Amino acid sequence: MYRMINVVEQDQPLQRILWRESVDERLRTYQLTTVTYGTSSAPYLATRSLKRCAEEGEKTHPVAANVIKNNFYVDDMLAGVHTVDEGKKLFSDVQSLLGSAGFNLRKWHSNQQEILNNIPSYLRDKRDVLNIDTTSTVKTLGLTWEPDSDLFWFKMPRWKQTSPITQRVVLSEAARLFDPYGLAGPVIVQAKMFLQVLWKGKYSWDEPLSMTLQSQWLEFRNSLDRLDAVSVPRWIAFGKNVISCELHGFCDASERAYGAVIYLRSVTREGQVSHRLVMAKSKVAPLEDLNKRKKKLSIPRLELSSALVLAHLYETVAASIQIPTNAYFWTDSTIVKCWLSSHPSRWQVFVANRVSEIQHISR
Asked: Which of 23, 128, 202, 243 sits in a 20 to 30 Å window from 148, CA-based?
């Protein structure tokens, strides 16, 4: 992707490198003319170029331009349509629009064989055959997508048998649990809380943990294999046959963590009601810092923090699904409800700032 984007001529001298095959050769100077891996601006330039391509094609390819603007994660596109004909047109328009800028999109996949038949074989994902079977999977944003069933699955990484277990090992293994939608939040937050225990115990990076802590981490790591049996529908049940949609967000907190989750409730013309998990997010409660006189947060304040997480989550989801919906926010904290029902100026700074932001987002 980077190599398809030219750098303006006056900036190319900033991308010069020195090179020689051996110490006996004379140094040669090369000047890179395209966006280069490793430079801090490269990800932005690539993403911005993609959006510029969409902006220039809004009049000729409006649907494709909208997908390119809103359904790309760097160079990966994840989008959906309601009919096979729409899918065929989307493929054609996206290829045409991106191709005009030198971006030749490959590794196409679909859960509809008829759409795949319309795509040249060299543009399909090489890991799949023409007839998709039940074991054919594609990795998408850290999740595994099974086109045949149209489900997201969790695939746990293969763990190395490391001994002894240190804080560095725990952090390395916890970082491998990539869950962009927060679908496994209740599980992964346990890894975050375990890291907090290590920070509180002031372990150095390579100091072996106590046998008790090592056993706890191994037990947690082994239990993750059960996530392989968990699946989540990719389609969140809204389309042309749906007459009403509602977003329902829930937030909660404990002494050690807090979080929020959003579901989509849809009703079809036939009266069929569907509920789908859309997105979730979890955070650990901040630790008490005696040196900085930072006290541990009370449960009501943690509940308010979870409400703020929910507000931000709603903001993300509402911008992504781009359909008219009513939104409902749920909390079991009477104190939080009282804070949110009043003007922020009534409260102290911590509460006032969060109440103000929540009210602004959810108005």
From this structure: 243
Integer Cα distance of 225 and 219 in angstroms = 11
Domain assignment present for 201: yes
Contact assessment for residue 355 and residue 340, using Cβ atoms and an 8 Å cutoff: yes
- Number of domains making up the chain: 3
Give the helix/strand (H/E) hosting 143: strand 143-146
Q: Structure pTM?
A: 0.80
Statement to judge: residues 97 and 37 lie in one domain:
yes
Supply 64's token pair: 């494709």
CB 107 within 8 A of CB 127: no
Domain co-membership, 104 together with 125: yes
Q: What is the DSSP code (8-state) at residue 69? A: H
Residue 239 lies in a domain: no
Q: Are residues 204 and 262 in the same domain?
A: no
Of 215, 234, 253, the residue at which a domain comes to its end is 234
d(C-alpha 67, C-alpha 88), whole Å: 14
The number of beta carbons lying within 10 Å of the beta carbon of residue 319 is: 9
- How distant, in Å, are the alpha carbons of 44, 160, 167, 205 from that of 172? 27, 11, 8, 11
Determine the structural domain holding residue 76 and report its residue range: 2-132
Concatenated DSSP letters of 245-310? EEEEEEEEE-SSEEEEEEEEEEEETT--EEEEEEEEEEEEPPPPBTTTTBPPPPHHHHHHHHHHHH
141 within some domain: no
